[in-house]
Amino acid sequence: MTIGVLALQGDVREHVAAFCDLGEDVTLVRRPEDLEGVDGIVLPGGESTTVSMLLDSSGLFDPLDAALAAGLPAFGTCAGMILLATEVLDGRSDQRRFGVIDLTVRRNGYGRQRASFECDLDVPGLGGPPGVPLHAVFIRAPVVEAVGGGVEVVARLPTGGGLAATGPVVDGEPTGPVVAARQGSVLATAFHPELTADRRLHRRFVEMVKERAGERRS
């Protein structure tokens, strides 16, 4: 099994290191031919408009779009979430996206660089020691404004503390905005899990890639 990391701009080395920590084979994807033999692909954090333009200029956008539409598992972090989402607010009118996870996201929704922050997230569905939160780093992060019915919420921002406006009310209680979500073989986060030593999200993506490989063989 080989994990591809889109290596046009952003946190490429950090994602490579995370998967190497898990003992997985990793390859860098810069050209259309680099997609050959890739079982899953990571779209790293960076600058979504720049990555969108580089995807076009490298000739990668259309073959990657076709691969994702055919079910290639994808893991997008921060800018990667924006590129994978179905709708992007406050983006450039000519910015292209893949639209493979039913999210509406707003670019830089938590503020610019100086508004970056860190917090702990409750992620019981990711396993690990009970009660151990996932530390998350938010840098010019997108805000998830809406989530489609087929999307699984993996993590929400804690309410209170002035970090962000609250999300919808669930069972009579306010919730924080969605910051990690999954739909089928696509996983996306508004933060940068590659910037911490916690590998739970990268491990979950490896599991998703293996699940997809098993479906293709059956």
Low-confidence stretches: 161-173
* Strand element count: 14
Structural class: alpha/beta
Residue share in β-strands: 25-35%
Along the chain, the helix and strand elements come as EHEEHHEHEEEEEEEEEEH
**CATH architectural group:** 3-Layer(aba) Sandwich
Topology-level CATH name: Rossmann fold
Mean model confidence by pLDDT: 89
Number of continuous helical runs: 5
Radius of gyration: 16 Å
Principal-axes geometry comes out as globular
Give structural notes:
The chain has 218 residues and is α/β, with parallel strands linked by helices. The chain has a single domain, classed as Class I glutamine amidotransferase (GATase) domain (Rossmann fold, 3-Layer(aba) Sandwich). It is 24% helix and 29% strand. It has 5 helices and 14 strands. A 7-stranded mixed β-sheet has the order 2-1-3-4-14-13-10. The protein has a 3-stranded mixed β-sheet with strand order 5-6-9. The chain has a two-stranded antiparallel sheet with strand order 7-8. Strand 13 (178-183) and strand 14 (186-189) form a beta hairpin. It is globular and about 45 Å long. The two termini are 17 Å apart. 43% of the residues are buried.
